[in-house]
Design a protein that fits this description.
Elements (H helix, E strand, L loop, with lengths): L3 H34 L4 H6 L5 H10 L6 H13 L13 H36 L4 H15 L2 H15 L24 H8 L2 H38 L2 H8 L4 H9 L4 H18 L1 H6 L5 H11 L2 H29 L6
Length: 343
């Protein structure tokens, strides 16, 4: 048995890596053919509307667009494998550099939002299940219903009007006050961490005041989903025979809930939290637009509106990589939270 277990783990790892490679290859293929059918002329974006025919055709040939479709696909695949994602028409920079510049802002916002969502949603979901059909349960369910029903862009705008314009409790748009921009060196791209590393607490507290509202709005939406799922999972466990047996034995309610019932839903919750986090890193388009947050979502939106095909294809590819990576990490954590999955 001790010899088969490592072999089984190696086999599972090999299957998962193979599946990830095949999925990425399919995603790359999908983005390539998506670019072929989109009504966007990349050459026109490069040379401009006033270019003559010779300049247009020279650029057309330089991009390899005069080659057969299978040759274009081969060249595209080769560039992707070497990390050459081309140039963004909107900024004139390499798409890779643009992504590295904007993505840390989304990681910072999404991480704080999922911490708020999971930190509130999971305990409230457990409380709602324990207090089923009581006033506490009804209040929590109304809060989660509002989180699902209220459009996030409306909630974001109303929050800005109330907490920023009227009460002045938080900062406005952007990541820091305008007079703090560029005052700390960029090391991680995350303003909270960079300001702490620089020892500049004025910038740090400005960053806190600016991130707390968009993170709270985004976290509220995820909290609603996590709360409802946690309540559903806990209700299922609280009706099981082992819970009844634990109560008959005289165990405290705290031990029954957190020591017996909750451990059996951790793996399910891990999946929900991971997918929620992946969705946030994909780009909270509306939140980043409303709060002028210079992240991945806003970058994707601007390039979509400008018809920047090259940048859009890379963004689609990155979204797929995010979900595949999160799924890989989740599968690895399964064995930590539930060793039975390692068999």
């Amino acid at each position: 048995m001790t010899l088969k277990k490592p072999a089984g783990r190696a086999s599972r790892a090999l299957r998962f890596v193979s599946s990830a490679i095949v999925t990425l290859l399919m995603l790359v293929t999908l983005t390539f053919f998506l670019g072929q059918v989109m009504p966007v002329d990349p050459v026109a974006h490069i040379v401009g509307p006033d270019a003559d025919y010779e300049t247009y055709m020279a650029t057309y040939q330089r991009l390899g667009l005069d080659q057969p479709i299978w040759v274009q696909y081969k060249l595209y695949l080769g560039r992707i494998l070497t990390g050459d994602f081309g140039t963004a028409f909107l900024t004139g920079n390499a798409v890779r550099d643009d992504i590295l510049r904007v993505f840390p802002a989304t990681i910072e916002l999404g991480t704080l939002a999922v911490i708020i969502g999971a930190g509130l949603g999971i305990p409230l979901g457990v409380l709602a299940a324990v207090r089923r059909d009581k006033p506490t349960d009804h209040i929590i369910r109304v809060l989660t219903l509002l989180g699902h029903s209220v459009p996030i862009f409306w909630l974001g705008m109303m929050s800005l009007i109330l907490f920023y314009s009227k009460l002045h409790w938080v900062g406005g748009s952007g990541r820091v006050a305008i007079y703090y921009e560029g005052m700390v060196p960029t090391r991680t791209g995350m303003m909270l961490i960079d300001s702490l590393l620089a020892g500049d607490f004025d910038v740090f507290w400005s960053a806190v005041r600016h991130i707390v509202l968009p993170a709270a709005v985004l976290g509220y939406a995820s909290m609603a989903a996590l709360c409802r799922m946690t309540r559903s999972f806990m209700l299922e466990q609280l009706g099981q025979e082992y819970i009844i047996t634990a109560r008959v034995k005289g165990l405290s309610a705290w031990r029954v809930i957190w020591g017996h019932a909750f451990p059996n839903i951790r793996v399910q919750l891990l999946t929900i939290v991971a997918l929620t986090y992946a969705a946030m890193l994909e780009g909270a388009l509306l939140i980043e637009t409303i709060f002028s947050w210079p992240g991945f979502g806003q970058y994707l939106t601007h390039n979509l509106l400008m018809g920047d095909l090259n940048a859009m294809m890379v963004c689609v590819l990155i979204v797929g990589v995010i979900f595949i990576t999160i799924n890989m990490i989740t599968d690895l954590l399964y064995e930590v939270f539930d060793p039975r999955t390692a068999r």
